[in-house]
Design a protein that fits this description.
142 residues; alpha+beta; CBS-domain; three-stranded mixed sheet; two-stranded antiparallel ribbon; elongated
């Protein structure tokens, strides 16, 4: 069974963070520079939520707000389900589907240790299937 810890081992647990008082425009610039779809929002050194491209589209663009004047804390997603490295990717897929979200924060105790995306789950599933195929090919040819 593939676990979140496998994903974090492959991609690393490094997260890109931004302060909740940062303008949405600056957050978007950071996300574009890093080629990421979400950024971890921190306040006083603590995790408080995530800002995603979906947050921007729905809470700024569609409401006619200014990206320069709106702060990240005003649009970030909070209260996201928390997962742990021992969770299976199947559990994560279920949580994401049920909650209609694309990102999950990963915690050890109360410390954020990574973020996984739906793309991470798909990639890990494909890699696992390719590994199984190679094992079966080796078995058949031996």
């Amino acid at each position: 069974m593939i676990k979140v810890s496998n994903i974090l081992a492959r991609k690393g647990g490094r997260v890109i963070t931004i302060d909740a008082g940062t303008s949405v425009l600056d957050a978007l610039r950071l996300m574009a520079d890093k080629n990421i779809g979400s950024v971890v929002v921190m306040e006083d050194g603590d995790y408080v939520g995530l800002m995603t491209e979906r947050d921007y589209a729905r809470k700024v663009i569609l409401k006619g707000k200014s990206s320069h004047e709106t702060l990240v804390r005003e649009i970030m997603s909070t209260g996201l389900p928390r997962i742990v490295p021992e969770n299976s990717i199947e559990t994560c897929m279920h949580i994401m589907s049920e909650s209609n979200i694309r990102y999950l924060p990963v915690f050890i105790d109360d410390s954020l240790c990574g973020i996984i995306s739906i793309n991470d789950l798909v990639t890990e599933t494909i890699l696992s299937q390719l590994e199984t195929i190679e094992q079966l090919k080796t078995y058949i040819h031996s």
